[in-house]
Each structure stands twice: as C-alpha cells, then as structure tokens.
Amino acid sequence: MNHVTILMWFNAEMINPVELFVGLRYLRAKRRTRFVSFITLISLVGIALGVAALIVILSVMNGFEGELRGRLLSMSAHGYVTGPGRVTENWRELQERISADPGVAAASPVVEMEGMIQSGRTLEPVIINGVDPEFEMPMLGETINLIEGSLDALQPGSRAILLGRLLAFDLGVRLGDGVVLLIPRPTGDGSLEPTLERFVLKGVFEAGLQEHDKLLALVNAGDAAMVVGIGDAVSAVRFRADDVMAAPAIAARLDEQMGDDVTTSDWTIENASYFRAIRLEKMMMSLLLSLIIGVAAFNIVASLVMVVTDKTNDIAVLRTLGMKASGVVRVFFVQGAVIGWAGVLIGVLLGILTAINVPVIVPVLEQWFGFQIMPGDVYYVTQIPSELETADVVIIAVSAFVLTSLATLYPARRAAMVNPAAALRYE
Fold first, then answer.
1. Which of 108, 148, 147, 150 has the alpha carbon at shortest distance from 129?
2. Are 28 and 41 spatial neighbours (Cβ–Cβ below 8 Å)?
3. Whether the model pTM is above 0.90
4. How many Cβ atoms sit within 10 Å of the Cβ of residue 69?
5. What CA–CA distance (Å, rounded) separates 214 from 50?
6. 254 close to 104: Cβ distance less than 8 angstroms
7. Quick check: 293 and 403 in contact, CB under 8 A?
8. What is the radius of gyration, based on Cα positions, of the chain?
9. Please, what's the b/e burial string for 384-417 (b: 16 or more CB within 10 A of its CB; e: otherwise)?
10. pLDDT means over runs of 10, the chain (427 residues)
C-alpha cells in the first residue's frame, strides 16, 4: 500500500463520526502515554513558532524592501525615456507626451554627468543631474528634504549647485562657497577632454540614502547641457508614476507608442541588483525557517508512530468490528491533522499580530535590554519596518497545512497494515 493509495482511500469517503471520535479520543493522554502527549505538544508548539517566525521575518524583509525602494527612488525617477546616444532632442514635446499617459504623475528633463568635484584640496567623485526647477518640483514632491536652499536657485546661467548632505560635509563647504567640477566632455573624434567649471553652492539636501547624499549634485539643466556640449538637448526625460509598481508597464507602453526613436527603462532595471539581493535573502530565510516546521512535522510522525504501536490492539479490535483499512487511515489522519492544523492556526494568528506590532514591540525590547538594534550612527533606517502581505501569509499557511498533513501518511499506513489476527492472537 503506497501513499497515493492512502490518499485515494481518504478522498473516497468523508470522515464519519466514529472515525472522528476515535481520532480525537487518541489525543487525550493516559498515564502511560504522557510522553507521547509531551512530544505532541512540542510538535504543536514547533509548528506554531515556525509559522509565526516565517510570517514575521518575511514581513520585516518586505518592510526593508519597501524602505529601500522608497529611499532609492527618493531622488530618482520611476522610469526614463532616452534618445539615441543618450542625447534626447525635442524633449519638450516628449515631456508632454509622457505626461499625457494616464499612469504618469509627472515628467521632467534631466542632463546626467559624472565627474569630480573639488573644494580647496578636497576632491570627491560626483554624479550631477541637470534639472529644470519648473518640471522638477512636481517630480520630487515631498521626497526631497532640503536642509538649506531651494530648487528655485537653479536658474539658467546662475551656475548654482545643490549638494547632498554627506558630499557637502566631505568637501567642507557652506552656502555661497565655490566648487569646481571636473567633467569629461566628448570631442568630435570620439575621445574625451576634461572641462573645469566653477559653480556656487546654493543648497544642501538629504535623501536618506548614502548613494544619493554622498554622490549626487543638482544643477540647472541648461548649465549642464552647455558643459557637455549638447546644446538645447537633454540626456533623458524622466517620469514618476502614480503607482511605483506600475512603472514597468508604463515604460513598456511608452516604448510601444514612441517606436524605435527612443528607448525606455524603469527602476526595476536600474536597481535590479538591490532587489535581486533582497529576494535571495528572503528565499534563504524562508528555507532556513522552514526547517523549524520540518522538524515539528517529524515530531508528529514520531508521536503518531508511538501511538500506533501503543494502540495496536485497539486497531485490531476496530478492524474486527468492521472498520476498513481506510477508516483506520482517517482515524490517524484526524489525530495528526488536529495537531498540525492547530499549530498552523496558532502560528498564523501569532505571526500576524507580531508582524503588525513590530514597530511597537521592538522599542519595548530595546528598552528592556538597554540597546538599540539599529543605531542611527550606523544605519540610515533606525526603526525596523514591517509590511504584512496577504500572499505571504496564505502561502506559508497552505504549505504548513500540506506538510503537516503529509506527516500523517506513514503512521496511518502502519496503522492500516495491522493484522487483526496477529495482534489479538494472545489476547
């Protein structure tokens, strides 16, 4: 008799009241089976803790993923539309067409440059975004934290520059100080020549991500275009979507509408490595924590095998009274399923409550133990975020249900194979 046959037996007939009564009766401990009941309790607790831990850890990972996504996109676009050779002509018409898309909240031109920035004897790498304040304000909205100055300072010909907080600190500059940009500019023969341009610091911003705060600078798009020698063109037109998760679909739609003249990209492509790493971490954490549920499932197998051994005579009597082998299977399925399913239900409820209240529980634990889990001088994120997703809870619960149900198959098979004549021979 194999596992498939057992499942066919179980599906052929519903559990009748007698089988349900006997299965539940075997859950009650007698004096000689207290050890078996203790293992049963450990199995239930193990399943509950494993399920709860999985839900909480995945919720925290989802929270960190959302926090990282928000910080990465705090001063970045959700998508880009770029002309050939990263030179986009007629960008105003392109900006209007992109803004007309129903899923786009705002669109703005950008001139992107990379180079070095110098103040005194200090030289730092820098990524410069040339922006137009008129279009950039709707793009950034509340995502940018301007510590000093304003985007309005970036007027054409003003040679004004805004620096990330860490970059300004490393350079040791304050408002009104001059900085020198060293930008490689392409020449007609395909080579690059260095260009020195002087700008004046007019503002400092904080995006909450080291990559932005330490490397990013903002200047006027016209000034940046003049530096790289592209005239009235820009590098690309960026857009911000109403729903960040819809950005890939919007980029694909714009690519179809605009043909081969431009290429499109979105934040999932630009930051693919970050989110690939998070998905890998989530997968590994899920596999490791699933071992807890696996061990608990093996405990169910062990406890049921001991029950089968202890109840051999009872099983033989039931078979003698007319219970079929499939009925015996269902008796032990009831016993194992109650243990497993109760553990899963408790674990789901405990996991959901804990995941929802992580922002409340963590500060209490920090106060009790006298340390901060994520200190502000080390991490940008000082609070542990949590984002509970229904899909994760459903997948974890269903997987645990299936695993604990499968754990009853071997003990049920052993019970169904009991020979009534051999078991009652000396009774």
1. 108
2. no
3. no
4. 18
5. 41
6. no
7. yes
8. 33
9. bbbbbeeebbeebbebbbebbbbbbbbbbbbbbe
10. 46 54 54 57 80 86 78 73 81 86 86 88 88 80 74 85 89 89 76 83 81 84 85 86 84 81 80 75 77 72 65 59 63 72 87 86 75 58 77 85 76 62 50
Per-residue tokens: 266: 């979105």
Residues in the chain: 427
Token couple for 238: 């960026």
Look up residue 72 and give its amino acid.
Answer: L
Q: How far is residue 66 from each of residues 139, 147, 252, 285, 355, measured CA to CA in Å?
A: 19, 24, 23, 18, 15
Interacting residues of 338 by C-beta distance below 8 A, sequence separation 6+: 23, 24, 27
Amino acid at site 374: M
